[in-house]
Every structure is written in C-alpha cells, then in structure tokens.
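Appendix B: a complete holo record

For completeness, this appendix reproduces one full record from the ligand-bound portion of the collection. The bound molecule is flavin mononucleotide. The inputs are the chain sequence and the ligand SMILES; the output is the full three-dimensional arrangement of the complex, encoded as structure tokens. No fields have been trimmed.
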Amino acid sequence: MAEILVLYYSRHGALGEMARLIARGIEEVEGMQARLRTVPEVSTVCEATADSIPDEGSPYVELEDLKECAGLALGSPTHFGNMAAPLKYFIDNTSPLWLSGSLIGKPAAVFTSTSSLHGGQESTLLSMMLPLLHHGMLITGIPYSETDLLHTSGGGTPYGASHHAGADNSLPLSEVEHRLCIALGRRLASTARALGRASHG
Ligand SMILES: Cc1cc2nc3c(=O)[nH]c(=O)nc-3n(C[C@H](O)[C@H](O)[C@H](O)COP(=O)(O)O)c2cc1C
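The structure of the chain with flavin mononucleotide bound, as generated:
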C-alpha cells in the first residue's frame, strides 16, 4: 500500500471534514491509503510547547511523514487571504527535505475554507502551492471534467477544493463541495499511483 499524507490545520472543524473526504477519495484508488496528520498551534511565547500527541483528532505531523508518503494534500483555513501560521510554521521547518530533494516529483494538492465567499479561497490555494513548487512537487488541481466546477455557487475551484463556511462557520459542506473534495483525493492518489508505476518501470 502506498500512502498519501493529508496534512491540515483546523480551528473550527471545516478543514478536518474536508481532509476526511479527501482521504475517502484517496482510498477509492486501488492500492492507495491516506495518512491524516495535523499541526500544533503556534504561540507568541516561543518557549511554550504543546504535548507531542493531541488530545483528540489526527496525530501531529513529523518530517518523516512527508518523506514516507507518495504524495501530499495540504489544507488550511484562509487567514487574511493566506494559509494559517501553524501550517506555515511547519512548512518553514522542512528545509532538511528541501536539501535532500525528498519531495521532488511527488504529486500534491491543496484545499481551503473561508467564512466569506470572496474572502480569499483562490489566493490561499495559490499561496499554498508556492512552497510545494520550491520542493519540486507536481501540483494537481481539479479539471473541469468535474462538471461541478461549472455550476458551483459556493466553494470548488480548479486550483483545489474549497468550502464556504459562512460568517459563523455554520454552513455544512454543500453537495458540490463534498464531491469535489473526494474528486481531488481520487485524482491525487491516481496521479501518485501512475507516477509510482512509471518510476518502477
Ligand atoms: C485569523 C483569522 C483570519 C481569517 N481570515 C479570513 C479571510 O481572510 N477570509 C475569510 O473569508 N475568512 C477568514 N477567516 C475565517 C476562516 O477562514 C473560516 O472560518 C474557516 O472556514 C475556518 O476553517 P476551520 O473550521 O477548519 O477552522 C479567518 C479566521 C481567522 C481566525
């Protein structure tokens, strides 16, 4: 079984739900499994440390997870049009993998959620791609053959999966957002599988 790392940060739960749907899409592909991981909060007090295992939910990610997995789905809520600091903090500590070129050629995908419809989904998704491109990863978006993209009035973009959560985070994932998360996971896993086959001849 090859694994895809689904790495996300979530404060109110939307990204956690999207991560589980992306994992479902990944596991629809034969021979592929999802590994769900999250990141701890960052603190303005640099000395403060979190327990190494969270009280609930996905375990915290380690560099080894990125190294061992055949691909990456990276998810963050939009914070001021960009990815959230806890995820960025983790990515800023991936220099050893950049130096060893461990992620070169692995496929990656991104996903996000916003409280307002035009609050920065695309800018967040695009900015999340930048460090992944520096790592040499191959970005897989969502093609318009997923016709939900043509009709969505909420989340769902060709840059990655997204969700419009509403001002008080009360909107559930729409059917379209739900389907596009699964489609993204499936596409990422199929790409990793095809690349794995190619590299093994
Ligand atoms: C510090 C901060 C900044 C935010 N900035 C934006 C923003 O720029 N645009 C937006 O629409 N929502 C913004 N939000 C709302 C979150 O993106 C939104 O609630 C998201 O769905 C939360 O995902 P979660 O449930 O996984 O935590 C912000 C929230 C916080 C805490």
